[in-house]
Records
---
Amino acid sequence: PWLLWLGVAIAMLSKGPVGLACTLPVLFLDRTIGARQRISQQEAAGFKGSAVAIADDLRRLCWARGIGLVLIASVPWYVLAGYQRGWPFVEAVLVYQNVDRYLTGYSHAQPWWYYFKTILYDFFPASLLLPIGLWVARRRFAEPAARLALVWALFAFCFFTFSGSKQGKYLL
């Protein structure tokens, strides 16, 4: 899964902690759901499933090595930026631009239901295909790629719905 973790590292470098917040939970959820689906199929065939199968599936992602790769790729940038620009810059990028903006919505504050109101015109004309896309994704949920796409889209929608700061481009 090295390419996967390289993608997470790129997300961290391009978006900061939001890159991690939008990828790591999705990986966890997708793997857990996929393992549960396999367990259900095995139990239907007469085999007994267990939480061990879920843990084994999650272990295959090599979390420690992957997060190590993400840190090796991203921490030097923050250290160099802090050295060149000073700690207030790093603090502003990590804390103010991510945590504070997510929790308080300082300049783009919107109510929690904002995306329910705007998703159709923010994604127009692609939003016309949303009902068909959700139907296809639901029918193909057992396929790993379709499941990952649906889990990722729903997680991003929920994650940014709970944010204090909302803009249509956040869901892109």
---
Amino acid sequence: HSCGIFCGIYDAADVRHATVNKMRNLPTNKENGFTLIEILTVIFIFSIIILISVSALKVFELDSLLIGVARDMTTDLRYVQQMAITEQIKYCLKLFLPEKKYQIKKCAEAQVFIEKIIPAGIISFSATGFTNNEIEFNPYGAAKESGTITLGSGSQTKIIDIRPSGFIKIN
């Protein structure tokens, strides 16, 4: 079949038929957006996920605080021990349990070098085995008495163990 001049031109019926088919495949207004119920459901699910995340972060924050305070106190105990060895005199770390604080000083003197306050997130602060809640290190780095310092936040507890040999460890 030869088409002559009209090759490639469709007749009017073909064009109309193609246009109708294209229109049938177009989405209607109902398919373009989300319903109010769908949006509210997504918002509800996101709010539950955020609520769970926030509560998990608070627990993580308290645990991190407890670990940080235990490490700081252990570092301060080792500092007191090193000062006793370096200066060849007794150094002490005095615990004030009700006030939730401690001081570093030379045992024979009243002058305090460092005073630290335990943060409010630490709920429990106690010590056992030390006379007058005082950890004393002699010029050889040995502790006068063995004992423990217990720090606690809501879900976790850290125990700092001090041995007469001067060994200090967080459990």
---
Amino acid sequence: NDPDRQALEERLAGHRVHAGFARHRTGVFVGRNDALATLRETRATGAQLMTLLGTAGVGKTRLSKEYALAEQQDYPGGVWFADLSEAHDVLGIVEAVASTLGVPLTQTDPIQQVGWAIGGRGDMLLVLDNFEQVVEAAAETVERWLEMAPAAVILTTSRTPLGLEQETVVP
């Protein structure tokens, strides 16, 4: 067994409470109850990867946060929000998610290290906001993480579908 993975899993064992995400709503959430219901229904079908698709400024980020806050009780591993607006490649995605999860990158395979961190949290929700500028890296990151963390749910916001087989697009 990999000693680095074992050490990481031991470190994460005590961090299964809801963390890494604001726990309180800010402002009023108006007019998107149908979209919120659609997200809930999509998740109820067993979707592990959901993408909120839409043009800039339609409220994808706000909707993803509202969903995460409303559904956090379903994710004992926590709800986590990673802003990818500064990411421009695979490494940018990995660094943003590692920072969100509080995982220092120390391995030669940081994608795998983050995958272990996600998998070690069990039932958790990871929101990846602004994925459109790094959509070409989806297979190398998101797809691999989903394979490593079958209990995790990933919700992305994007102007472009990720193009992964397991993706469910929510317009």
---
Amino acid sequence: IDPASRELQAKYVGKTRLDFRVVEDDRPIIEAHFEDLEARREFSDLVYRIYSEDNEDRIYTLQISGKPRFDDDGTFLGYRGTARNISDKVEVEHENRENQLALKTAQSIAKLGHWITDMNSRTTRWSDGLIALLGFHHDPAKAEQDTPVNADIAPAEFQMPSWRELLSRIH
């Protein structure tokens, strides 16, 4: 267990969500969650944030799942579940989004572009900057679709410009 998770475990195991100071923006999530608990419904991958007990500036992002347990007579026994500290994962995802935006901005300012080819799946992704540099029109609906390398495309559907023509568009 990583140190942050060990801290959470020591301080928070055995407590209920009522014992935590939930980040204000996440209160509706917790209120809906309490309705599920009262109705004895299963919940899965619920994500919310709490403040650290020691440090107001430190926020933990938790992901919880649980299943209600009943005895043979149908009497509710409680929930069995898991809680995970996903703070580091959320932070890395946030940094990745910021880095992607910075790269896109830098390429736009510098009039650059790039492509990435995955040889295993035989697909290539072109950046928006490369699409614009080469004079193609970008269709946002197809932005996340991969284009197979050396795909068999009928000439009537798509005509790849010559390298000379592509270079003339750039220079």
